[in-house]
Amino acid sequence: QVQLVESGGGLVQPGGSLRLSCAASGSLFKGAAMGWDRQAPGREREWVATITAGGGATYYADSVKGRFTIARDNAKNTVFLQMNSLQSEDTAVYYCRSTLAGYTYWGQGTQVTVSS
Fold this sequence. Notes:
The protein is mainly beta. It has one helix and eleven strands, in the order βββαββββββββ. A hairpin with a 6-residue loop joins strand 4 and strand 5 (46-51). The N and C termini lie far apart (39 Å). 31% of the residues are buried.
């Protein structure tokens, strides 16, 4: 079964940290570029970060560069997003993304709320 399951979202104060995880079925992970997108209320979904299939290269949106880190564990079919120095502007639903052979898949999303 094709699955991307996110976890780790929640409520955090400004300046805090969260670590998101995405467990992927093998067919969506091996050989796939993995990443995260997010969608804030009233806004379009936006790209956040991408990591290549082998994990050798990572890419970030300017808005999160230097604060977020994407990583993957190929033995566990899991991709992570470490988010530090969170700001209210980071409040959104975060979606795990898999891109393989020209197809893109997303999980159901996990809510991240940054508020005091």
